[in-house]
Design brief:
The protein has helices spanning about 20-30, 45-55, 80-85, 95-100, 105-120, 130-135, 140-150, 180-200, 200-205, 220-225, 240-250; strands spanning about 5-10, 35-40, 60, 90-95, 125-130, 165, 210, 230-235. With about 250 residues, it is α/β, with parallel strands linked by helices. The protein has one domain (about 5-250): Alpha-Beta Barrel (TIM Barrel). It has a 4-stranded parallel sheet. A 4-stranded parallel sheet has the order 4-5-6-7, covered by helices on one side. Helix 1 crosses helix 11 and helix 5 packs across helix 7 (about 140-150). The radius of gyration is 17 Å and the shape is globular. The two termini are about 15 Å apart. The structure holds glyceraldehyde-3-phosphate (G3H). The site of glyceraldehyde-3-phosphate has 14 residues, from strand 8.
Length: about 250
């Protein structure tokens, strides 16, 4: 039996102002959510504190979509780990492909962000995944290995308690073209094997690996049914309460 945490995280990206945040959270709060699934929402920075307050009586966790690696300083427009902690946020998405592609986040920068998250006792949802060209040229395993080796695998075995992995093939994000359940399983198994090689079987068996990329209520059950898929990181479908709730209930 799979004893790993089942997790469904909604990545709201740059969507939802404060009133839309309350609206969406009201619907989620009022819904039936399974007790054995950890549900996470990641509103934009401007809604984090309010979202946390709105969910004070709920098990839904509020997380941030990004943070800067430095403790403080002249980094106009950026937000630190301590600032997130200060409004009750202790989970953060790091390395989303949109951050890598549009905001030039390299594996080296991400390694520093991972360190900052760990130093601040935060859980990091570490994203990785290949682009379409990598898959077409059969280089997807190498790319993923490189992203993990350079961005994450410098941590200590005990740090894995604070890490959730999220495989997001870039070609499946927001495109409606999801990876097949077999493709997801193949990559998740490969990644779990990499973790086992370096950090041992116990760590590999206990880390949750989420799949992200065009997950919707129609395909979630089959994807989540794969042996090494422990949940999802949901983009577009996380913005519609009905769809997100259906996905959370898909295990
Ligand atoms: O973080 C979420 C992913 O980018 C997936 O987005 P999507 O579900 O809209 O394809």
């Amino acid at each position: 039996m799979n004893m790993r945490n089942k997790i469904v995280a909604g990545n709201w990206k740059m969507n939802c102002d404060i009133s839309q945040t309350y609206e969406l959270l009201d619907e989620l709060k009022d819904s039936e959510l399974p007790e054995d699934v950890t549900v996470i929402v990641t509103p934009p920075f401007t809604s984090l504190q309010s979202a946390n307050q709105a969910l004070v009586d709920s098990d839904i966790i509020v997380a941030a979509q990004n943070m800067h690696q430095a403790a403080n300083g002249a980094f106009t427009g950026e937000v630190s780990a301590a600032m997130l902690n200060g409004v009750g946020i202790d989970t953060v998405i790091l390395g989303h492909s949109e951050r890598r592609a549009m905001f030039w986040e390299t594996n080296e920068i991400l390694a520093a962000k991972v360190n900052t998250a760990l130093e601040n006792e935060m859980t990091a949802i570490f994203c990785f995944g290949e682009e379409l060209g990598d898959r077409k040229s059969d280089n997807h395993f190498n790319i993923v290995k490189e992203q993990l080796q350079e961005g994450l695998f410098h941590i200590k075995a005990e740090n894995w308690e604070s890490i959730v992995l999220a495989y997001e093939p870039v070609w499946a994000i927001g495109t409606g073209e999801t990876a097949s359940p077999e493709q997801a399983q193949e990559m998740h198994k490969y990644v779990r094997g990499l973790v086992a090689d370096i950090f041992g079987n116990e760590v590999a068996k206990s880390v949750s690996i989420l799949y992200g990329g065009s997950v919707n209520p129609a395909n979630a059950k089959e994807i989540f049914g794969q042996e090494d898929v422990d949940g999802g990181l949901i983009g577009g479908a996380a913005l519609k309460a009905e769809d997100f709730i259906a996905i959370v209930n898909s295990f």
